[in-house]
Amino acid sequence: MRDWNLRRLRERYKLATAAPRPDGVFESRWTTVDGVRLHCRATREDPAGRTPVLLVHGLTVSHRYLMPLAARLAERHPVRALDMPGFGLSGDPAATPDVAALAGWIASWIKAVDEGPVAVLGNSFGAQVATALAAGHPDLVRCLILVGPTMDPSAPTKLRQTWRWVRGLPHEDPGQFPVLLRDLADAGLKRAWRTFGIALDDRIERRLPDVRAPVLIARGAKETVAPQSWVRQLDRVLPRAETAVVPGAPHDANYTSPDELAALVFPFLEAELGE
């Protein structure tokens, strides 16, 4: 068990739960896309001449658990943490979208706010959506960071994937758990369960050869959901990729280990964006 600092836990929780209120760095923005009102947590003042970094959340969660990393990335880049349709503070679509539909919604949002092309960072299921965005809309994505990408086919059932996640919980920031419960309440159990099935059926490795943007694949050193063997498999099929291990980090490195993750992301962005 990590040595948790109470002040640090409170700061992360405050960042995660601030929306829709503005704080010193971020504000909430809404954009209607295909009839659905999408929520984005965005930096209020953007560094000039820098490519925006779009953060894509994972399964049943929202922008909230991305905010500790967002705060670090905002030191150098404009940051946008988007709630996908049906999650967080975004509106509900008529049906539960699959991976391709979610990527299409994000593509339409990028065009609507006129901020592309962007750097995209996806955690867990968000990595699946991010790769679909890059493969289907290459003009909108400059580079990709995949953090703990799912779904490893060696654990092909909901039970086995859930057990992997449960095994990693002792390494996660305990302040994250009320945030995750709030996200689950926003999404609803039915949408969460259906999206779990969609994520499990999606074969990310089959579309990776079509991703032309440079990619960084990162996994936590204490990761239980995305093992190193799975990362190596993804690395082999990507045309332009590199891998990294986030020291001491679990699956949700963006919440639990934002400093360590940012230390890997910044050099990658600098090298690929030239900024």
From TrEMBL:
Record Pfam families: Abhydrolase_6
SUPFAM superfamilies, per database record: alpha/beta-Hydrolases (SSF53474)
Keywords recorded for this protein, A-Z: Hydrolase
MF-aspect GO terms: hydrolase activity
Entry keyword annotation includes Hydrolase: yes
Presence of the UniProt keyword Hydrolase in the record: yes
AB hydrolase-1 domain segment(s): 53-263
Coiled-coil intervals, chain numbering: none
InterPro entries referenced in this protein's UniProt entry, alphabetically: AB_hydrolase_1, AB_hydrolase_fold, AB_hydrolase_sf
Name of the protein in its database record: Alpha/beta hydrolase
